[in-house]
């Protein structure tokens, strides 16, 4: 591709999105740039504090449990109080709890505060996704979610590299820097982002009113809950890249550096390919994309059973990373498409919970399977789970309903159709 063509592709990828989206995107990037604690938490507990690996696993599980519990509550807050207040509360609470965690010394206190950090940090996700759906036009949402996912991975790649250097200097500095950068995100939200909840005064669609949507409404939505269940299965598979893969490589005689080289392929490919791949898929059938990405994820991990070198393992990482690049924006866009406008927070909360539960179940699953049957069985199970998820998406996505348009867009469509009828 020529330089002019590359410039045109970049311009088309980022054009047409509202200013509010870019402030939200910047907040996401800043948040992930400061995500040091998740990277070095296990090392901090085992090497710096001298606790056992079992205790470090317990703290990680409590952190994940906090995220599971807060997902639904944050979804309700997002719909009732608004996107902006939920983001402010979640990010401020995250900053305070992360800073507090750095000063904890008692093992019970560390575990309790880690639980609070998990609750606070996960609470912002339904609000971010709901706000993004509010402010971005339906035809641009896949692109917007993809750009947001790209920011998450770019920030995480940079913070992961920086976390090691910060940890060598001071673990406490890492806690305090993350707390400070999270507060910066809260300030950005407070200063630059108006409330976008439909029916609110500052909303782009203030005339929409409020609808009666409860958590029971979400649970009774059979198609949507099917998507949530399939999302859980796909998340179980993707989690193995950070849980089952390092354990299996260690048992096979590979070094931590070998794992680092292999998994680095994941971050590099996402940063390089996320935007061009999204340009290719954004107007294609989401059901078909989710079927393909589920199969690629399952069989990408399944192929790991036959990988005997770092190079071959890196190739398998390429396969399931491509699945991740396709799945992430497509799945998030589908969640919005199936969500009623006034229930986006609750629906996003349920979707977020599927990933939070997967982060709890995945380490237990990978450890049990590897200990009792070996890593080959784990990779075979990933292939089976990916196949089941792909078949499930194929069945659920038949006769996918048209996406609900905001009031203003519905009015424009009605006027346009009326004009067509009058002219005929």
Automatic annotation (TrEMBL):
Annotated signal sequence range: none
Principal location listed in the UniProt entry: membrane
InterPro entries: MFS, MFS_dom, MFS_trans_sf, MFS_Transporters
Pfam families with a match to the protein in the record: MFS_1
Keyword Translocase: no
Protein topology in the membrane: Multi-pass membrane protein
The protein, known as: MDR family MFS transporter
Transmembrane stretches, start-end: 21-47, 53-74, 86-103, 109-128, 149-167, 173-191, 224-245, 257-277, 350-370, 376-396
Domain named Major facilitator superfamily (MFS) profile: residues: 20-404
Alphabetically ordered keywords of this record: Cell membrane, Membrane, Transmembrane, Transmembrane helix, Transport
Xref: CDD domains: MFS_MdtH_MDR_like
Record SUPFAM superfamilies: MFS general substrate transporter
Organism in which the protein naturally occurs: Streptomyces atrovirens
Localization per record: Cell membrane
């Amino acid at each position: 591709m020529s330089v002019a063509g590359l410039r045109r592709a970049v311009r088309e990828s980022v054009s047409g999105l509202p200013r509010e989206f870019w402030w939200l995107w910047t907040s996401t990037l800043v948040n992930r740039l400061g995500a040091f604690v998740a990277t070095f938490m296990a090392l901090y507990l085992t090497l710096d504090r001298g606790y056992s690996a079992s205790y470090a696993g317990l703290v990680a599980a409590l952190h994940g449990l906090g995220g599971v519990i807060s997902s639904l509550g944050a979804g309700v807050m997002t719909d009732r109080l608004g996107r902006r207040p939920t983001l402010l509360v979640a990010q401020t609470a995250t900053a305070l709890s992360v800073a507090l965690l750095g000063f904890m010394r008692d093992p019970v206190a560390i575990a309790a505060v880690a639980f609070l950090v998990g609750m606070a940090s996960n609470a912002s996700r339904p609000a971010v996704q709901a706000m993004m759906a509010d402010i971005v036009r339906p035809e641009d949402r896949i692109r917007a979610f993809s750009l947001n996912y790209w920011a998450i991975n770019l920030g995480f790649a940079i913070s992961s590299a920086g976390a090691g250097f910060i940890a060598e200097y001071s673990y406490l500095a890492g806690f305090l820097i993350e707390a400070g950068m999270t507060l910066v995100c809260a300030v950005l939200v407070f200063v630059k982002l108006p409330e976008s909840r439909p029916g609110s005064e500052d909303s782009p669609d203030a005339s929409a009113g409020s609808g009666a949507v409860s958590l029971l409404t979400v649970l009774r939505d059979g198609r949507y809950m099917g998507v949530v269940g399939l999302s859980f299965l796909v998340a179980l598979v993707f989690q193995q890249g950070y849980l089952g893969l390092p354990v299996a490589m260690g048992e096979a005689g590979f070094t931590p550096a070998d794992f680092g080289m292999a998994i680095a392929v994941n971050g590099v490919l996402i940063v390089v390919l996320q935007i061009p791949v999204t340009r290719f898929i954004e107007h294609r059938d989401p059901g078909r994309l989710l079927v393909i990405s589920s199969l690629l994820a399952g069989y990408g991990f399944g192929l790991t059973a036959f990988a005997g070198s770092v190079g071959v393992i890196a190739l398998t990482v390429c396969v399931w990373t491509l699945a991740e690049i396709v799945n992430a924006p497509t799945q998030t866009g589908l969640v919005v498409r199936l969500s009623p406008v006034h229930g986006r927070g609750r629906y996003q909360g349920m979707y977020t919970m599927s990933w939070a539960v997967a982060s709890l179940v995945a380490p237990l699953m990978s450890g049990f399977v590897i200990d009792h049957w070996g890593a080959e069985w784990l990779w075979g199970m990933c292939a089976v789970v990916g196949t089941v998820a792909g078949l499930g998406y194929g069945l659920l996505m038949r006769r996918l309903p048209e996406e609900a348009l905001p009031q203003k867009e519905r009015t424009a469509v009605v006027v346009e159709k009326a004009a067509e009828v009058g002219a005929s």
